[in-house]
Amino acid sequence: MKIDVLYFASLRDAAGVARERVDTGAADLGALYDELRARHGFALPADRLRAALDGEFAPWDAPLRDGAEVAFLPPVSGG
Amino acid sequence: MKIDVLYFASLRDAAGVARERVDTGAADLGALYDELRARHGFALPADRLRAALDGEFAPWDAPLRDGAEVAFLPPVSGG
Amino acid sequence: MSRFAISAAPIDTQALRRALESHGAGACVTFEGWVRDHHQGRAVRGLEYEAYAALAQAEGERVLAEACARFDLVAAACVHRTGTLALGDIAVWVGVSAGHRDAAFSACRYVIDEIKQRVPIWKRESYVDGDAGWIHPDRTPR
Amino acid sequence: MSRFAISAAPIDTQALRRALESHGAGACVTFEGWVRDHHQGRAVRGLEYEAYAALAQAEGERVLAEACARFDLVAAACVHRTGTLALGDIAVWVGVSAGHRDAAFSACRYVIDEIKQRVPIWKRESYVDGDAGWIHPDRTPR
């Protein structure tokens, strides 16, 4: 299935892109992050991130579906 | 001795003046307030007021001297 | 830097806020007290504030100096109105800047709490029903 | 009334402050986060903020709605900058009005604390020594 992935801050720098379409068989958000972390060499482990699915926060075991938009969110530092 | 007395808020309304010069033999601020309370019919007892002598807060047993400026301060309500 | 003032004219909050600026400050907290249309169940029409100006100035400066001594501040200021105020007018303004927000919030709260307790300023409320009176809160003087 | 916004343009604090006005409000507390010239011992030259705009908007609105539910407020608003900021620029503004100052202080503090913890916005600091980096505080995500 095809998933649109958004990257922010240090993850964007590491991926080299703000957004990419990936073709994956990952069962859930956690498996997708593991796959992309191996590919891009992300320094941040999943337990320091939050994940979002289609514009809302989602748990790591949320299942994926074709055409979903996923974001992996490093620790925030607004304010 | 002559003392200048300042009145504020409800004490000013009750005294009918913002300031008056009184000739008194009162030994301290407390005795002076008792004297003026009897004269003007102030509703507020001394324990709800603070006193000031020559522009600074002063205890009720502060002695008076000729030419002093005294103020009796009702409970404040700024802010 | 700290500054206290009693003002018979409307409070210029923008100028006061600018005076708090510093590149060493990361947080700025301000408090404004506004003339509200009700007090203890009565409909308020307007207010008048009277101050014992010389002592209010000295006591207000002491409050700001205490805030600067207790909290890690860059700057602090407070202005209190006197005279006749309408609904919505600013009766008192407090502003502080600090490196971090903890100090800024704590100091701003400290200043307004102490000003209300200690500074010789009195409020006379005028009510919609035509009545009016000085407010002398019933608390033990300190 | 509550309003959250992400803004690429400088924050118009006067307009935001006016929108909090109400004759039923007696207290207004504002917080401004300013770009400070140092962070954890390093001399800072400037900042960049990036947001996940759609989710930041939704989460910011949730924070304001929570503040309105927890505290007795008249109005609340918050604006957070994105883009490149210089020293002294306003990074975030929070303002609340309420009948009384207790609610106003508590709510303003609640909003900025939650915004900093939860809203997907990231800061990239540029240092005077030429280095730069994204800030990802080491705390357990909630």
Automatic annotation (TrEMBL), chains A, B:
GO terms for biological process: Mo-molybdopterin cofactor biosynthetic process. It holds the Pfam family ThiS. CDD domains: Ubl_MoaD (cd00754). One of its GO terms (cellular component) is molybdopterin adenylyltransferase complex. GO terms for molecular function: nucleotide binding. The keyword Nucleotide-binding applies. InterPro entries: Beta-grasp_dom_sf (IPR012675), MOCS2A (IPR044672), Mopterin_synth/thiamin_S_b (IPR016155), ThiS/MoaD-like (IPR003749). Keywords: Nucleotide-binding. Belongs to the MoaD family. This is Molybdopterin synthase sulfur carrier subunit. It comes from Chiayiivirga flava.
UniProtKB/TrEMBL annotation, chains C, D:
GO terms for biological process: Mo-molybdopterin cofactor biosynthetic process. It catalyses: 2 [molybdopterin-synthase sulfur-carrier protein]-C-terminal-Gly-aminoethanethioate + cyclic pyranopterin phosphate + H2O = molybdopterin + 2 [molybdopterin-synthase sulfur-carrier protein]-C-terminal Gly-Gly + 2 H(+). Pfam families: MoaE (PF02391). It is an enzyme of class 2 (transferase). Its EC number is 2.8.1.12. One of its GO terms (molecular function) is molybdopterin synthase activity. Pathway: Cofactor biosynthesis; molybdopterin biosynthesis. Keywords: Molybdenum cofactor biosynthesis, Transferase. It comes from the Bacteria. The keyword Transferase applies. Belongs to the MoaE family. Heterotetramer of 2 MoaD subunits and 2 MoaE subunits. Also stable as homodimer. The enzyme changes between these two forms during catalysis. This is Molybdopterin synthase catalytic subunit.
